[in-house]
User: What shape does this take?
Amino acid sequence: MLLLGIETSCDDTATAVVRDGRIVLADVSTNQDAFHAKFGGIVPEIASRQHLALLSAAVADALERAELSLAMLDGIAVTAGPGLVGSLVIGVASAKALAFAAQKPLYAVNHLHGHIFAAFIERDAEPEYPFLALLVSGGHSQLVHVDSPVAMHVVARTRDDAAGEAFDKTARLLGLPFPGGPAIDRLARDGDPAAIAFPRHRAERDALDMSFSGIKTAVKYFLESDAGRAARPQDVAASFQAAVVDVLIDRLDRAARRAPYRAAVLSGGVAANSALQAAFLAWSERTGIPARIPHLRYCTDNAAMIAAAADRQGAAVLADARTLTANPNLPFVLPGPVQAV
Ligand code: KG4
Ligand code: ZN
Assistant: This one.
């Protein structure tokens, strides 16, 4: 299948053309960071206006780079949720119009499923089912049990902040630019992860829940203390990062003991983090469970992952080009087959 992917759930205006859910013929992303940076976070109204201004050109650009016309595609895949409603609406309206005009199937993809299937893009070694996905982004931190492309459920999630949110908020405390994850990652390279013992969220025995707001608050109080004022920012960044990574790997390890997983996938924007990748690979070595990490380019938001998910989910995410609506709270579990009465 040759699919056009459209992703506008947050602040990246992204389009892609993907063959068979794994070969990327075009990958276009217009990063809006410059528009949001001065506010220290994403401003939803600005994001949706930027999508509106950029999306048509991004679609044309993807088709041109793939050297294809709309008529040559087998379908259009769009992120239908979750995300910022004003942003989602722009992508969904555009995908509906394209699908309707070209009379092509329309696939409504869950953004989080997209992150999981990013691990299948341009990789020879694909995850085998069932696999466990550690999905860590700006809006979500969860562990997902994946039996097949259409059968998956969340086994653990954060009680409060997402891991990416903790990175962004902590970066702000350190006076680093937005988005904070990459900035902390870079700064931490010259720091000592054992310099400051920030608290790790402890879960009850056998529990899988996680929490990241405590680490962020601990950094805040530390920076206000005498020791904090004297500390090297590199050490604070590395120690904070180590605390987040420890919690994520601890819960991953606990979850992995619950089922005979044949692979573990690390995905979402925070999967780009170098310390987390290193810890994830070390854990894989220890447990013998093969680790699958998307190429860096496909860790953060992109449209290729949306096409990759649609390719594998097929009929389960087929939508009506006249009636599809964006859903900022799109449920994670796909509806089961409709039972005949
Ligand atoms: O998946 P994503 O692009 O968008 C959402 O769906 O949220 O994730 C964005 C998040 C941001 O919080 C950003 O700071 C974080 O991913 N991030 C990182 C790194 N690169 C991006 N966090 C830690 N280290 C990184 N290298
Ligand atoms: Zn995302």
